[in-house]
Amino acid sequence: NAGVTQTPKFQVLKTGQSMTLQCAQDMNHNSMYWYRQDPGMGLRLIYYSASEGTTDKGEVPNGYNVSRLNKREFSLRLESAAPSQTSVYFCASSGEGYTEAFFGQGTRLTVV
Amino acid sequence: QKEVEQDPGPLSVPEGAIVSLNCTYSNSAFQYFMWYRQYSRKGPELLMYTYSSGNKEDGRFTAQVDKSSKYISLFIRDSQPSDSATYLCAMSGRTGRRALTFGSGTRLQVQP
Questions:
Q1: Among the four A62, B18, B22, B103, which has the fewest Cβ within 10 Å?
Q2: Is the pLDDT of residue B96 over 70?
């Protein structure tokens, strides 16, 4: 049982490049989330999707876009990467009626 | 001021010690409280989940919630070197957006 799977695990981008972080869950969860984790800042919510076809901004959405492709998949896109987006990105999901979230292993992104 | 405050540590204890980890919060709407454990370069994993006030015990772990003081704690009994990790508190409200608000995490080191 894979749970939440993120790809890629590592990525180095040049400033201005674009990329998409992929996330898929196999737990039949309705809600999916993208967080970023920076030293001393904990995890901060970028975007979330309460159900297929809906997305909403979180605490730090600027510079990002998301797509809830279907119930399983939720992608995060950086259109024009900036050094401030250097971070570890986590995707998570939670089931109907539950708030506890299950996390993927993260994507370490460096923007140079 | 952050909604959730957590001492970053590091907290260093000898093997077998009782560990106390704490978070304070300011949002009285928070009803669900969680503790996550995160090993280095891994995703957070759910450790304890508590609804509203009270205590919950699971093996060597006890979670306490005091909503009147807006204070939550995680106690680890008979700590082991394998408990060395970063511990993140997280919480959410009953209605509206169910995404979690995290503390910044406390790094724990258990010395053999």
A1: A62
A2: no
